[in-house]
Design a protein that fits this description.
By secondary structure, the chain is mostly beta strands. The protein has two helices and 30 strands. It has one domain: Beta-galactosidase, Chain A, domain 5 (Distorted Sandwich), CATH 2.70.98.10. The protein is about 5% helix and about 40% strand. Strands 1, 12, 13, 14, 15, 18, 21, 23, 24 and 30 form a ten-stranded antiparallel β-sheet that branches.
Length: about 375
């Protein structure tokens, strides 16, 4: 979706890097975590950038403004490092209009129909910011908040981000204490753990909204890159991109990615669902067994040999193909972000779940802890 979809408080694993060039011949920084100034808010508050590096030279940069993944540097099959996520060189880019690049999305990722839901007999009204619907937590969601950052002392470089979303913020009930931990592991994965507690019944759906291009950010479109999604069903949408409530089979449709398929192979077919979203911008119902991490998706780039695997504890994943990128955004290094120049894989609970009792529940009650895990793991193939 133009903005991005969401997950409940989840854990994720990603491979990331810092902004700036990082070639195979460049001197690799020492493993660990480094803090630098990323910019200042309009009120003068300093925003930081945290760069996590593992022993393989992989680098991930994260800012405490919106908990955004700013860069992810990983090697191709020849050992050449490149940044594979879209974003900006400094804070100012993120303060302007942008489609949620790299952000933590909350309190509720994805859409809620007509900005309304009822919980415990009370109807709550949310900001309308996407046609007739509420998207990604509203006009001032978690992506636009300054998170409290703490570097963690452990075997792998890790960054803890916390934020208190107060009762009534963007229309949501309850004081919600959110914590997201990014861990860069030695197998070239970033683990993101999302945790949340509340003092009043509420709904929660958090995700990370990174835009990936495995050929490197700004290096053309992603239509020849290969996608596999481990799902037999998806949740079809109406013209406003809200789920109808049905769970339909992907069999015989352009939404069948159970076997690795080029992203662009069927994206322009004469299909109502594709027309509604101007491409792929839908939620898949993941094939899951048990409550642990399981493979949700696998993407690869035949040219560079880079591979991205997504594992999660979440029930769904939103696959979005940058259909609203139009070349007007200039990102890192002045790169132009054109039509379908990146894809998103947002692990999540289903869109509009509070209004669909047949969907997995996104309710969180006092005394409960929300905890989900997602892993973005990078490798190469010949």
């Amino acid at each position: 979706m133009p903005s991005g979809r969401g997950l409940l408080f989840c854990s994720m694993v990603l491979m990331v890097g810092t902004a700036g060039a990082f070639g195979a011949s460049a001197k690799q920084p020492a493993p660990g975590i480094k803090r630098s100034v990323f910019g200042k808010m309009k009120d003068g508050q300093t925003i930081d950038l945290y760069t996590l590096t593992n022993r393989n030279g992989m680098r991930v940069s994260i800012t405490n403004y919106g908990g955004r993944v700013v860069s992810v540097f990983v090697p191709d099959r020849n050992g050449k490092f490149d940044d594979v996520v879209l974003g900006f060189d400094d804070l100012q880019g993120y303060l302007g209009n942008n489609p949620f690049f790299g952000a933590i999305i909350g309190r509720y990722a994805n859409r809620i129909a007509h900005g309304r839901f009822t919980l415990d007999g009370v109807t709550y009204k949310l900001p309308i910011n996407d046609g007739p619907n509420s998207l990604h937590g509203g006009t001032q969601g978690f992506d636009k908040r300054v998170w409290k950052a703490r570097e963690l002392s452990q075997d792998h470089p890790a960054l803890e981000l916390t934020y208190l979303s107060k009762d009534g913020e963007e229309g949501y009930p309850g004081n919600l204490s959110a914590k997201v931990v990014y861990t860069l592991e030695e197998d070239n994965a970033i683990r993101i753990d999302y945790t949340a507690t509340t003092d009043k019944g509420t709904v929660v759906n958090l995700t990370n909204h990174s835009y990936f291009n495995l050929a490197g950010q700004g290096n053309g479109n992603i239509l020849k890159q290969i996608m596999m999604i481990n799902a037999d069903r998806f949740t079809p949408i109406d013209a406003t991109l809200i789920p109808t409530g049905k769970l339909e089979s992907v069999q015989g449709t352009p939404f069948d990615f159970r076997k690795p398929t080029a992203i662009g192979a069927r994206i322009n077919e004469n299909n109502e669902q594709l027309k509604f979203a101007r491409g792929y911008d839908d939620n898949w119902v993941l094939n899951r067994h048990g409550s642990g991490l399981s493979l949700a998706a696998r993407a690869s780039d035949p040219e560079s040999g880079r591979v991205l695997e997504v594992l999660t504890t979440q029930p769904g994943i939103q696959f979005y193909t940058g259909n609203f990128l139009d070349g007007t955004i200039h990102g890192k290094g002045g790169k132009v972000y054109g039509y379908r120049s990146a894809f998103c894989l947002e692990t999540q609970h289903f869109p509009d779940s509070p209004n669909h009792p047949n969907f997995p529940s996104t309710e969180l009650k006092p005394g409960q802890e929300y905890h989900q895990v997602t892993v973005f793991k990078f490798s190469t193939e010949k």
